[in-house]
Amino acid sequence: MIDQGKDDVRFVRLTEISEETIQQHMSDPKVSKHMPLMKTVWNINAVRQFVKAKEAHWKINGLGHCAILHRGEYVGWGGFQKEGNDWDFGLVLNADSFGLGLKITRIALDMAKKDERIPYVTFLLPPSRINLGAFKRMGAEEHGQVTYEGDAFLKFRLDTS
After folding, report:
1. Are 125 and 31 in contact (CB under 8 A)?
2. Which residues are CB-neighbours of 66 under 8 A, at least 6 positions away?
3. What is the pLDDT of residue 19?
4. 10-29 per-position pLDDT tens digit
5. Which domains does the chain show, CATH number per domain?
């Protein structure tokens, strides 16, 4: 499920983005501040392992994270990734593109509503994320706190049917 364009936003495979661009993005302290699972230095080898892992989800589940372009420029990555029985939505934007988060999320959720594999979407948010109003306005329900790879996250769920 790769959307070919809506509101100047496109989702493309991560393999279409230069390793240096992803490295620069993931090395930004403004980005890593809200990513408790990011415990590695983002060199080119880390980028290659990251892209390889994300591509594996596509092979296993037919869906995975994508690079996100806004008006043709890379602004981050995200999308749907199978986590146990849940389709989790993740979004990691460049610091300069944080304001596009809601717009991109709405476009992705529209795609999920058209995909019969995704009856609901989950969001795992770091406790450092204090502005949760947008999730609640979209209709996402809080499902408490979960631990994932040793770190605590707030879990939200949104029905897409």
Report:
1. no
2. 2, 11, 12, 13, 14, 77, 78, 79
3. 97
4. 999 999 999 999 999 988 87
5. 9-118 (3.40.630.30)
